[in-house]
């Protein structure tokens, strides 16, 4: 702003110097990178990105080309880059040729479009054929019968949500997080997810209040079993390990249970290493963080179904600690359930199945 005073004129004239409008150059990364470099920077192959774009393109197109509107592919790649690096939205904007406010809107617009596919890609087995298929695949790991899912919780770091309830999101390790419950199958696909509880919530509290437990209680899954850790109660449908196995049969049960349930732990490693933003922390508002968690879970399942492996870390990714420490920081061991761990169903399973394997 410039003030210009003239001795011949008693009035001051004020001139506002406006910043010139800067149209950033937008690179065509889909064609600029070969497939390997593309996978490293955007965490999925070109083929997977193209197929995903077909599914969500209608949600991303603008009604006109006025003001150099951003193409759906550029919107998608900017969002994937955000998931891959956890860079600030200013940096994502510079990378993608967008202003910071535009980058902010596009990241959350694309995340919502991807999350809307959750009913197509995050599906719990409901038919007898699907249940038996899951049970066969789990049985092939360590001969644990009737398993249709492995369940646990993982913490996703977030910024303080503010307000009177902010401290509810501080977990036992002292940082703010969302405690995310997932159930996975033997292929490490997430078949059920609950992403709305604060970091202070106990794992068993989340399960006790979710619709999946009500369906198990109602017998919707027959004799199907969920494998869980010691923070959950032993019931006819949830099987934690034995706290103090005393016989060879009980030790065999524990070994088989732990090896089979390890699928859910491995799924967290794959999910977070593919999308490092989940391990490094979501620096967005709470409601948008929940959408990003669901969106990355959908992408995780799409890529597991395609058989795509986790690419090497992006060269621009800055890790505050080794991956082993970051992943361990997201797993918070809960105190054992106060519910008595003696379960008639578990005892029958041990005596009728695992005794025959000795």
TrEMBL record:
Required cofactor names: a divalent metal cation
Keyword entries, A-Z: Cytoplasm, Hydrolase, Metal-binding, Nuclease, Nucleus
Protein's name in the database: Putative nuclease HARBI1
DDE Tnp4 domain: residues covered: 151-301
Lineage, opening ranks: Eukaryota, Metazoa, Ecdysozoa, Arthropoda, Hexapoda
MF terms in GO: hydrolase activity; metal ion binding; nuclease activity
Family: Belongs to the HARBI1 family.
GO cellular component: cytoplasm; nucleus
InterPro entries: HARBI1-like, HARBI1_animal, HARBI1_dom
Subcellular location: Cytoplasm; Nucleus
Name of a matching Pfam family: DDE_Tnp_4
Signal peptide segment: none
Task performed by this protein: Transposase-derived protein that may have nuclease activity. Does not have transposase activity.
């Amino acid at each position: 702003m410039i003030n210009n005073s003239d001795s011949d004129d008693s009035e001051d004239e004020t001139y506002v110097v406006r910043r010139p409008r800067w149209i950033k150059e937008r690179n065509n990364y889909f064609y600029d990178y070969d497939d390997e470099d593309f996978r490293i920077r955007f965490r999925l192959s070109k083929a997977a990105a193209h197929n995903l774009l077909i599914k969500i393109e209608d949600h991303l197109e603008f009604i006109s080309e006025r003001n150099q509107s951003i193409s759906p592919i550029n919107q998608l790649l900017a969002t994937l880059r955000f998931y891959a690096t956890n860079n600030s939205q200013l940096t994502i904007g510079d990378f993608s040729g967008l202003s910071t406010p535009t980058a902010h809107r596009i990241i959350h617009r694309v995340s919502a479009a991807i999350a809307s596919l959750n009913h197509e890609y995050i599906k719990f087995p409901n038919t007898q054929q699907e249940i038996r298929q899951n049970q066969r695949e789990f049985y092939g790991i360590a001969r644990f019968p009737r398993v249709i899912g492995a369940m646990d919780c993982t913490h996703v770091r977030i910024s303080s949500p503010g307000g009177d309830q902010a401290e509810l999101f501080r977990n036992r390790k002292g940082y703010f997080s969302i405690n995310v419950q997932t159930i996975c199958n033997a292929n490490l696909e997430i078949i059920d997810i609950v992403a709305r509880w604060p970091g202070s919530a106990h794992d068993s509290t989340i399960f006790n209040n979710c619709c999946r437990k009500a369906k198990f209680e109602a017998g919707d899954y027959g004799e199907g079993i969920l494998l869980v850790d010691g923070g959950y109660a032993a019931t006819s449908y949830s099987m934690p390990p034995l706290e103090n196995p005393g016989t060879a049969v009980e030790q065999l049960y524990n070994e088989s249970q732990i090896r089979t349930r390890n699928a859910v732990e491995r799924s967290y490693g794959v999910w977070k290493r593919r999308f490092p933003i989940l391990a490094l922390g979501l620096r967005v508002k709470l409601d948008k963080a929940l959408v990003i968690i669901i969106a990355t879970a959908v992408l995780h399942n799409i890529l597991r179904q395609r058989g795509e492996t986790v690419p090497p870390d992006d060269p621009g990714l800055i890790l505050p600690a080794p991956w082993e420490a970051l992943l361990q920081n997201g797993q918070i061991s809960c105190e054992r359930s106060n519910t008595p761990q003696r379960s008639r169903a578990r005892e029958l399973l041990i005596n009728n199945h695992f005794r025959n394997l000795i």
